[in-house]
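Notebook p. 47: complex prediction with NAP.
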Amino acid sequence: MKLAVAGGTGTVGVHVVEVARERGHDVVVLSRSAGVDLVTGAGLSDAMSGVEAVVDVASTRTVSAKESTAFFAAVTRNLLEAESAACVGHHLALSIVGIDEAPHGYYAGKVEQESLVRAGAVPWTILRATQFHEFAGQIRAQASFGPVSIIPKMVSQPIAAREVAERLIDLAERSPAGRVADLGGPREERMAEMVRRYARAIGARGLVLEVPIPGAYGRAMRDGTLVTTTESDHGLQTFDQWSAAQAR
Ligand SMILES: NC(=O)c1ccc[n+]([C@@H]2O[C@H](COP(=O)([O-])OP(=O)(O)OC[C@H]3O[C@@H](n4cnc5c(N)ncnc54)[C@H](OP(=O)(O)O)[C@@H]3O)[C@@H](O)[C@H]2O)c1
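Predicted complex, structure tokens below:
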């Protein structure tokens, strides 16, 4: 089957492309480094020729609600329009557990993305996942000041990006299914602990301070809003197994 992967060079996108190719699918990557700008739409219609399903794992690194909403709205509208013109039969979007209950700027864009996909003319599937294992390293890089890392008090349920990619390709191989069961990691972890263990695994030194973030989003980070419910599916690779593999 011919698949297009929007954001196929990103953290989860590289795994989506790898899994799809391992299973014998023909893959076209939609990203700026592959010559397609999903925000302006440049290069998109040519890339869509013969595509049967689109997996959207494009993203932006902003925490601004305005910027995130503008990004996900433009990307989703452009993808859906190009898919309709090319008679693509399946649009799959990767979203995040808890986006509609946790008021975070980036999540505003994800809520907009989901609502455009649901209202769109292309048959769709939406998978929500929890944070990837990589999140601990990303947050550590953003929140470190010299040897001190200031990490929000947060309960996470990290999952291997590779396992999310495998689920996305399973779904792409089936008919459009609407919103499917959420996918979370095998266990709940405290983000500050994850950062400490990740730093140890890669041989980095320093102090990790855990700080409660005020406001509704801070509460959502602490109270389990961002982890899965009992009806969800779970991956197998633990954060420590993933960290050990990174260290090797
Ligand atoms: N990170 C997490 O923990 C997590 C958890 C659950 C769900 N998700 C969701 O998973 C998806 C992927 O997240 P990620 O962390 O893997 O993203 P990421 O590493 O930041 O990668 C973003 C991708 O989007 C592409 N991109 C950005 N702007 C573009 C543009 N204007 N035109 C074309 N491509 C563009 C980038 O490629 P170029 O730079 O080459 O354009 C890159 O391939 C997102 O929808 C996110 O909400 C993330």
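Notes: The two ends are 35 Å apart (CA to CA). The pocket of NAP is lined by residues 7-13, 31-33, 36-39, 57-61, 94, 96, 110, 129, 131-132, 135 (CB under 6 Å).
Next step: compare against the earlier run before touching the bench.
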